[in-house]
Amino acid sequence: MTAVLDAGGADYTIIAHEENYSSAQDGAGSGLGTLAEMAPALILSTGVGFLSAVIRGDTRLSYKKIKQKLGLKNISLAAPDMVRQVTGSGIPNHTLRISPGAVIAITQARVFDFTELKNSIISSKPPEPC
Q: Which of 53, 57, 38 shows the shortest CA–CA distance to 86?
């Protein structure tokens, strides 16, 4: 992995830690940064293959937005065994700190809004007057 990052000229840091963090909340709680600075990478299974989605830690996927933007009918999180098969594997107890711009440049990612805030409340009623 570092060979790809180095070849792409990315400014990055690999942080080793004693525990394996399995969520953005875990990373933020450990002092790696704020929840919004965490960027979990999720592998999605679709009818036409797999996608990788990197989101801010304070958001969640909007399957509806992804389906609409990419014209897909079925999409779900890939099962853990499929994630290992598609990606090889991660490096336990390590976190990659890299700018979003560097990830986009190296991977030639397609960028669009496919998230919503975790704590958003959607209501069809207007707010009550004060």
A: 53
Report the alpha-carbon distance of residue 33 to residue 27 in Å, rounded: 7
Q: Which amino acid is at 112?
A: F
pLDDT for 1 beyond 80: no
- Name the nearest CA neighbour of 56 among 87, 81, 72, 33: 33
Alpha helices in the chain (DSSP H): 2-7, 24-29, 63-70, 80-87, 100-107
pLDDT band at 22 (very low <50, low <70, confident <90, very high): confident
| Domains of the chain by start residue, with CATH | 2-117 (3.90.960.10)
Say what the pTM is.
Answer: 0.81
Give the per-residue pLDDT at 124.
41
Beta strands in the chain (DSSP E): 12-16, 41-46, 49-54, 59-61, 75-77, 94-98, 115-117
